[in-house]
Amino acid sequence: MTILVIAEHDNKVVAPATLNTVAAAAKIGGDIHVLVAGQGAGAVAEAAAKIAGVAKVLVADNAAYAHQLPENVAPLVAELGAGYSHILAAATSNGKNILPRVAAQLEVDQISEIISVESADTFKRPIYAGNAIATVQSNAAVKVITVRATGFDPVAAEGGSAAVEAVAAAHNAGTSSFVGEELAKSDRPELTAAKIVVSGGRGMQNGDNFKHLYALADKLGAAVGASRAAVDAGFVPNDMQVGQTGKIVAPQLYIAVGISGAIQHLAGMKDSKVIVAINKDEEAPIFQVADYGLVTDLFEAVPEMVSLV
Amino acid sequence: MRVLVSIKRVVDYNVKIRVKADNSGVDLANVKMSMNPFCEIAVEEAVRLKEKGVATEIVVVSVGPSTAQEQLRTALALGADRAILVESAEDLTSLAVAKLLKAVVDKEQPQLVILGKQAIDSDNNQTGQMLAALSGYGQGTFASKVEVSGDSVAVTREIDGGAQTVSLKLPAIVTTDLRLNEPRYASLPNIMKAKKKPLEVLTPDALGVSTASTNKTVKVEAPAARSAGIKVKSVAELVEKLKNEAKVI
Ligand SMILES: Cc1cc2nc3c(=O)[nH]c(=O)nc-3n(C[C@H](O)[C@H](O)[C@H](O)COP(=O)(O)OP(=O)(O)OC[C@H]3O[C@@H](n4cnc5c(N)ncnc54)[C@H](O)[C@@H]3O)c2cc1C
Ligand SMILES: Cc1cc2nc3c(=O)[nH]c(=O)nc-3n(C[C@H](O)[C@H](O)[C@H](O)COP(=O)(O)OP(=O)(O)OC[C@H]3O[C@@H](n4cnc5c(N)ncnc54)[C@H](O)[C@@H]3O)c2cc1C
After folding, report:
1. The pTM is what?
2. SS3 string of A42-102?
3. Measured from the CA of A281, which atom of ligand 1 is nearest?
4. Fewer Cβ atoms within 10 A, N terminus or C terminus of chain B?
5. Of A132, A166, A200, which residue sits at a domain end?
6. A201-210 residue pLDDT tens
7. Per UniProt, where does FAD bind (chain A) (predicted)?
């Protein structure tokens, strides 16, 4: 059994989610190879070779792969992956974009967002916004799987010494091109990797008021998230949305401020170790999952908390 | 330009679902069913393209039981011109659905196919990408903006780090994210008119598609419940507990 893990990267660094994906591969068992598809991604390949448990790194360096366009990367993964027992990618926006395309090319069903490995062919995954957990078995020759990072503790980024091998395969479908991107810049930790997350909801009233949460986050070394309502209202950008259809987080501490606790929001954070809710409505459903609830006005509580921590 | 919109009948997003006692699945008896919210956004986008004069005809398709005709009628009331039901009572996987949609694409030859990014029941987030692979088309997933110009479409996508824009040659596949638009409600006169719009019923057999699957659901369980904790009286008490009891700050 040999498993192909698709590295998540920006041509410069390996994203932490790759370490969780390798951890899932290690649970399945067998040799682990990592594919780095990109352009000028030599540093990524070097870093991938150091990941604990990785036996080989395949590097496909080509302008067609520079922006991870699925029309070009999926045929590459399908071609290389056909000889593997499993193909794994992180359930990031990139993994979700590419892997179903690979599965369709290989004519197999994909298993999305696994949270545990039961055996080499059987996995658990949440459905219905995490309100049910399905155990799914695959009899596909190549099992195509996306991995929810919060389900697997990351392997060590250092300690391995895998061989690095270039692959020549170039696929350029010519159906798509990259136009541009606007990436959020922040000095705070990345939402899905942060140990502490402070999230704001509609109760924040406007984008400017998020400054209170940024102040708290900076004191705690935390990332800042939001509910869908806060994103839809334009308080903060979409990459901050936590939930069923946003990002899934499971930090040591999640502080929900002015968030009611709709099931779609809970789906993205209820596996956090400790949950704090600050809400002025004592009936808010968020209190049903909170370890510590504080019924009060957030505009008083948050500044006070900033001064106390 | 013809636009094909794919819609799925799912449990309404407000319903708190229950796992069946025998762990065979989720109890869907007497539960409110609706159009998947991302599919509503897909229909709305198609209707806006028609209002702008970009689209000339909107065809909606659903794969599912005969009751999915309700959701197709809703889409017709929202502005779609005609509907196709690929009738199947089975729980089809995304690949099977994508293969059926591919057969419909071959038949209808749309320039643009709009789907939801994910169905809120199975949360797969696969079908659009699979349809794109099977048809060899470009894909703009998780779209927050769609602009057709000439023979291409620019799609702005919600990605983990922010937003990305790609340009795709038509025909192309788009899957919707939450911020693409705010769907309208159907008006009563339009609901009445929708009853007279054409709705064709096909079968997987008639389309020549095998819906065999490599996945099998072994069991479905309720998640581990999280119990409510305590209410603290002040910020000071909260900070004290986080420091000394939970030891997380
Ligand atoms: C298809 C679909 C997908 C969705 N995906 C997601 C998702 O991924 N993530 C997500 O979050 N939601 C998602 N939602 C939306 C979800 O259903 C809720 O609408 C949303 O989470 C509500 O956000 P909120 O809690 O901020 O707002 P509200 O429900 O309006 O809650 C605001 C809360 O703030 C409190 N409050 C107000 N003022 C104060 C104050 N001064 N002090 C203290 N408390 C105050 C109120 O008591 C209230 O509880 C989705 C919905 C659908 C249909
Ligand atoms: C308890 C239970 C467990 C299940 N477990 C699995 C499982 O483990 N793996 C699995 O693959 N399937 C499973 N299924 C089947 C699953 O419900 C879906 O029917 C199937 O996976 C289709 O994919 P999706 O809805 O997740 O598509 P997504 O890719 O999430 O849907 C995206 C979009 O595709 C379009 N679309 C999807 N389905 C249809 C449709 N029927 N008609 C028209 N358009 C559609 C819509 O535009 C939708 O917004 C299970 C079903 C149940 C009830």
Report:
1. 0.90
2. HHHHHHHHHCCCCCEEEEEECHHHCCCCHHHHHHHHHHHHCCCCEEEEECCHHHHHHHHHH
3. 47
4. N
5. A166
6. 999 999 999 9
7. 202, 227-228, 241-245, 258-265, 279
Residues A147 and A251 in one domain: no
- The string of pLDDT tens digits covering residues B69-102 is 999 999 999 999 999 999 999 989 999 999 999 9
If asked whether residues A213 and A135 sit together in one domain, one would say no
> What ipTM, to 2 d.p.?
0.94
Q: Over the Cα atoms of chain A, what is R_g?
A: 20
In this structure, the answer to whether residues A138 and A214 fall within a common structural domain is no
Q: Which residues of A touch B169 (CB under 8 A)?
A: 174-176
Show which of A115, A132, A166 is a domain's final residue: A166
Tally of domains in chain A: 2
Instruction: Quick: pLDDT tens for B78-87.
Output: 999 999 999 9
Any chain B CB within 8 A of the CB of A283? Answer: no
Contacts of A282 in chain B (CB under 8 A): 231
Domain holding A83: CATH number? 3.40.50.620
Residues A120 and A50 in one domain: yes
pLDDT digits (tens, 9 = 90+) for B203-218: 999 999 999 999 999 9
CATH of the domain at B103: 3.40.50.620
Cβ of A275 closer than 6 Å to ligand 1, yes or no, is: no
Residue B228: its pLDDT value, please?
Answer: 82
Q: Is residue A12 part of a domain?
A: yes
Q: Which chain A residues have a beta carbon less than 8 Å from that of B129?
A: 70, 96-101, 104
pLDDT of residue A255: 98
Report the sign of the C-alpha dihedral through residues B167, B172, B173, B177, in that order.
Answer: positive
Name which of A102, A128, A174 is nearest B121 (Cβ-Cβ). Answer: A128
Domain around A25: 2-166
Q: Give me the total of CB pairs closer than 8 Å, taking one residue from chain A and one from chain B.
A: 258
Q: According to the model, what pLDDT value does residue B225 have? A: 85
Q: Name the residue in chain A with its Cα closest to that of B172.
A: A175
Say yes or no: A251 and A155 in one domain: no
Ligand 1 pocket, A199 CB below 6 A? Answer: no
User: Is A173 inside any structural domain?
Assistant: no
